[in-house]
Amino acid sequence: MRDGSSIPPVIILGAGLTGLSAAYHLEGVPRVLVERAGEVGGKARSERTRGHTFDVTGHWLHLRDPRMQTLVQRLFADEAVPLARIDRVTRVFSHGALLSYPFQANLHGLPLDVVQECLVELVVARERAARGEARAPATFEEFAVARFGKGIARHFFVPYNTKLWGMNPDQLTADWVSRFIPIPDTAQIIGGALGLRQEGLGYNAHFLYPETGGIDHLPRALRRAGVDGHADAALLLGTSVEEVDVDGRRVKLSGEPDWRAYGALISSIPLPELIRRAPGAPPEVRAAAQRLRWVRWRYLNVGTRAPVPVDYHWVYVPELRYPFFRVGVFSNAVASMAPTGRASLYVELNERAGPVDERAVANALVDIGAVARADDIAFMEERAVEYAYVVFDDAYAEATRVIHDWLARVGVRSCGRYGAWIYNSMEDSMIQGLDAASWARRQLRSPAGGRA
Ligand SMILES: Cc1cc2nc3c(=O)[nH]c(=O)nc-3n(C[C@H](O)[C@H](O)[C@H](O)COP(=O)(O)OP(=O)(O)OC[C@H]3O[C@@H](n4cnc5c(N)ncnc54)[C@H](O)[C@@H]3O)c2cc1C
C-alpha cells in the first residue's frame, strides 16, 4: 500500500460512531480505522461493574432518518441482543415538585405565584412578538425570554443551562437550540399550567435501546458489520494519531516508525486536537482553533442496593441549590442494567473540577426523591468527559468557518460531533460517517486528490 504502486487507503481517525459508520459505508475500499482507546465506541461506550451497566450518562437512540432506521434494523437483525422501543419518561424537579417534561408546558404543581409569574411573562413575550417588537435573539438567554417569557426563563432555562454549560446562557448563542427545545403553543402552556398533561412534546418522545443494556451494542454491531473479517479494513486500537502532514498526505501514528500515506483522510477526533497535530495549518487557522471553547463533563455512576422510588428515565434539576443538573436511572429504562432489586443511575454534576462531596450528592438525591435513603447507595464512581459539549459563543461561527475552509482546501474531512464541532446526536454522527464515506470515494476518484 505504501510502495506507490496502488492507491493508499482511506484513513479514518477515531472509532466512535462517526468513524465506524464511515468504515462501514466504505465497503470495498481499503480503509484503516485508527482509535486511541482500547475499544471502539467513543462516547457511545458502556462500562459494566458489579452487575451494573452504565453509559457515558444517558445515551438514548432516537432515529428519524429512514437510512439510519434501515441501517440499525439491519445491524441488530444479526445481533443476539434486540432493540427495545421505549416511551420516554422524563420529569423536572423544581420547587419540591416533580413536574412532567418539558417544564414550559407543565407548570402545574409549582407554587401558584411561580405559575402566575410564568404565565404573565409568557403573555408579555407573546404580545411583544405579535406586535412585531421582538428582535432576533442574540443569545440563548434572549431566545428563552423571547419564546417563553422572563418567568420560565428565570425558573428553568437560565439556571438549568447555567449548570449544564458551566456559564450563564447570555454567553451562548441560540444557534444550536432549534431542534432540541420544544416550543409549545400558548394553549399547551396554559393547559399544562392548569394540570392538563402535555406529554410527548419535543424531539425525543420515545427512543431505542438494546434490550440487555449498554449502548455499546451499537458501535460493536457496526464494527462487526463494517470492519471485522473484512480483508480491506483494518482497525488499529490503542493507536493515536500524532501528526497529520496535509501536504504529504500522510499521518504519523503512535508506535509506528514510518508515516502512513492516505488516499483520503476522515477525522472524527476533536477539531482543536486535529489542528494541533497539523503543523501545516496556517497561523489564522491555528488562531481560530485557539478560540474554540468546549465544556468538560463530570458525572457519577451510582449503584444502589435497593430499588429507587421513581419511574422516570431521567429528571432535569434546574435549581442552583442542587449539585447536579440531571439524574438518570438506566435500570428504569432497561431493568437488566442493574441486578434485581437494585438500580443504576447517572448523576451529571455542576462542578467540573475539584473533589466531589459524595455525602452532599447523596443527600441531594434523597431530597429530590431519586433514592429513598442515602444508605441505599452502594457505590459512586466519578467519571469525566473532556470534550462533552462545544460552546456556541460569539467566536464560534467565524472560527469554525476559517478552520473548515482550510481543511476543505487541503482535502481533509473533519466530521462527527467533535470533528465538525457541533451539537448532535448518535444518529447525526452515523449520518456524518455515511456522508464522509461518499466524500472519500469521490476523493479517490479525483486526480488532484480532492484538494482545491
Ligand atoms: C454527555 C453526553 C450525552 C449524550 N447523550 C446522547 C443521547 O442520549 N442520544 C444521542 O443520540 N446522542 C447523545 N450524545 C451524543 C453522542 O454521544 C455523539 O453524537 C456521538 O457519540 C459522537 O460520535 P463521534 O464518533 O462523532 O465522536 P466520539 O464518540 O467522541 O468518537 C471520537 C473518537 O476519536 C478518538 N480519538 C480522539 N483523539 C484521538 C487521537 N488523537 N487518535 C486516535 N483516536 C482519537 C476517541 O477515543 C473517540 O473514540 C451525548 C453526548 C454526550 C457528551
What does this structure look like?
This protein has 452 residues and is an alpha/beta fold. The chain folds into three domains: 10-44 and 216-292 and 393-445, FAD/NAD(P)-binding domain; 46-88 and 204-214 and 294-390, Polyamine Oxidase, Chain A, domain 2; 90-194, protoporphyrinogen ix oxidase, domain 3. It is built from 13 helices and 19 strands. It has a seven-stranded mixed β-sheet. A hairpin with a 4-residue loop joins β10 (241-245) and β11 (250-253). α1 packs parallel to α6 (217-226), α3 (112-130) runs antiparallel to α4 and α8 (283-290) runs antiparallel to α11. The radius of gyration is 23 Å and the shape is globular. Residues 1-5 have low confidence and may be disordered. The structure holds flavin-adenine dinucleotide. The site of flavin-adenine dinucleotide has 37 residues, from α1, β18, α12 and α13.
Structure summary:
This protein has 452 residues and is α/β, with parallel strands linked by helices. Helix content is 33%, strand content 22%.
